[in-house]
Specification:
It contains two helices and 31 strands. β1, α2 and β2 form a beta-alpha-beta unit.
Length: 394
Amino acid sequence: MRRPLVLSLSILFSLTSACGGDDVSRLADIEPTTRGGIPGPAGPRGEPGPAGPAGQYARIKVVPPGSTPERGGENLREALAAILSPSATEPWLVFLEPGVYDLGGEALHLRPFVYLQGAGAGLTTVRSHSAEPTFVAAADTEVGALTVENMGGSPHAVALSTPSANFRARDVVALAHDGVERTVAIVSWGVPGAPDSQGVEFTHARAVASSAQGVVKGFDCQDCSVRLASSSFLAQGGGQAFGIAVHGGSLEVWDSSAEGLKGTEESIGVDARGSSHVSLVRAEARGTQGPVSTGMRLSSSTATVRDSALAGTGLAAHQTRALDVSRVARLTYRVDVERSTLVGSTQVVRGAEGYSIFIGGSQLRGGQVEGNGMVACHGSYDENFTSPPAPACP
């Protein structure tokens, strides 16, 4: 085994002087500073370098929950009131620590460029019993990782109200219950006749609305343009229960579910009217346990359904349909259904004059295809996998 060669400092000094001459600094000339040496005077200060890129948020506020839920609500209001001039170049992030923030009987109005984030939907809850929505959002805002709740008691109980422009919500739970006339978990509103808005999206959201009376909706779209992804919307009870209701809007539903449950008059999964358009992709629309239960109902509106399920289910005496259409204006409307499952005992599909319904590669289970208008099936089959020649439907 070879031993490592250890050279003394004197040998190293000799080698460096012999090899480098005057051009190589001698180690002995380097004044030690780490073993008792005294540093020399500081050199001149250099010019400051260029500023780095701006962060996503220019300002951050952290809000504690307080000793009581009511104190937490006051902390939240005070934190938002202290933000004087949020802007696109100086947005604010307001972070809510785990806890309950009770706003009492007053709503919370968010301003543009103020982003509200909690510690998680199961950890941070903001609630109220306001006659207005608990949260009234604005354009150019975001809400995430929290629960928003309206505890009801007023004629209208709404958890979250959003504009139909430049708004996003992620990992949000919206709960609304016990409104007297109207109970809605989330409502998104737009301006009639305005150009389609972009950038409005709910991802990983869960909306639940429940009441013993009035109209109950999980998601209510009024002239909105919204994309829903990986979310669920449930309306339970009331006279009319709508998982998703659309009026004059454009709605995309991806990898999500909508259910109307136990309405005393009707239960509808997705209800669209007033020249709306609804697109379902890998989604479920169910009306359950109502005297009239329908998966998707369209009135003077169009729809595309792909890789999805439409189902109306209930008791034997109930009217249950997968797809039900009707027309108010004397226009023509089209519905395309591909690679989907349609379930209804009274009728699987009920058509109407002015509607053209095309169903391809889908399963139709339960009742028949009836009504006016045109319904054409291609490559579709019933629960026994019987497929009649096109364009007949099972």
